[in-house]
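Q: Here's a chain of 409 amino acids. Please give me its 3D structure as tokens.
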Amino acid sequence: MAEIYNVDKIRAEFPALDRQVHGRPLVYLDNTATSQTPQRVLDAIRDMYVLHKANVHRGVHTLSQEATDMQERTRRHVAKYINARSEKEVIFTRGATESINLVASSFGALLPEDGEIILTVMEHHANIVPWQLLCKRKPGLKIRVVDINERGELDLDQYRALFNGHTVMAAFAHVSNVLGTINPVEEMTRIAHSHGVPVLIDGAQASPHLKLDMERLECDFYVFSSHKMYGPAGIGVLYGREELLERMPPYQGGGEMIGHVSFEGTTYADLPFKFEAGTPDFVGIAAFDEALNFLESTGLEAIERHEESLLQMATDGLKEVVPQVRIFGESRHKSAVLSFLIGNEHPYDFGMLLDGLGIAVRTGHHCAQPLMERLGIPGTVRASFAAYNTEAEVRAFLQAVERVAAMLG
């Protein structure tokens, strides 16, 4: 018999959830932007600063060895967590955004001058702008864009049709940060590989919710961020296939990524250190290990079921309490994101009034302006759910939305 999902026990691990906002209990529904942090991660950060703070891979003394061991333990944990073939395929960065920039810059240097890069209309700016910068450096490169249908699902027929002899790269989100759509990334990767085209998957929105398996996905690059996975801010991961990482030139130069330096020339360190110039955030990396422990001990499948239940409750409730609601993203395969507008009310006004009632949601274009243009709107109100949210919080959210809608007429 499956263990009952104990949301109260989970919430007890998160100190921020006990606070009040404007005299009301905080209902935190901005998890797509960043998640809250459990006490075990906060304790790991403190312990690193108090007991183990020393630069990694630099010293023979005990503190340096301890810090190094803790950082590399996390790397091994990440490799196992995502089912990578080797820990050499796990590169630590500052976040998913830097991971994409690293690939666009370093792997992009290997791409031909006159190719085409396939993106989708639902991409976050972080998976658009780095490729545009590459196109400026290589003016012959062009970007082709896959559209969506009215449910917010990618047009797979159009995606297939975009591949031709000039296609050199495909990059797409695993999960849309606006629509919540879970894209068929395995099928999309198979299609790209059938044309000999490498694939990057932006997993920033998938990693807190879905089980990741690089062997199953068979993608060439996958990126995600710690801070959306109950971990510290400023830590990200780039997974890359070892044979591709070996071919790529370094992204940045400096300490740690070198083999030998002379003024006549430099050789580079082996993977993964070739792409980790300078002092890493070894404190955050070590603490990220505890965030992964939290996810594993809670269970990704249990979290996903819990979040799906909350999303369904919120979606049905929203349609009931405010019939004029417009929901953006009603895919048949969807993560715990609810983007909506009430009539013609501006999302900023709506979000500010919800904040006054203790409800934290995100408003605006969510760093997805091309998608907003496609939808014909300036932005949305976005509620997003996490492992620690409750049915009582969904009811409070619905009551607040109904009240704000009435206030705005």
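Q: Can you summarize the key feature?
A: The chain has 14 helices and 17 strands.
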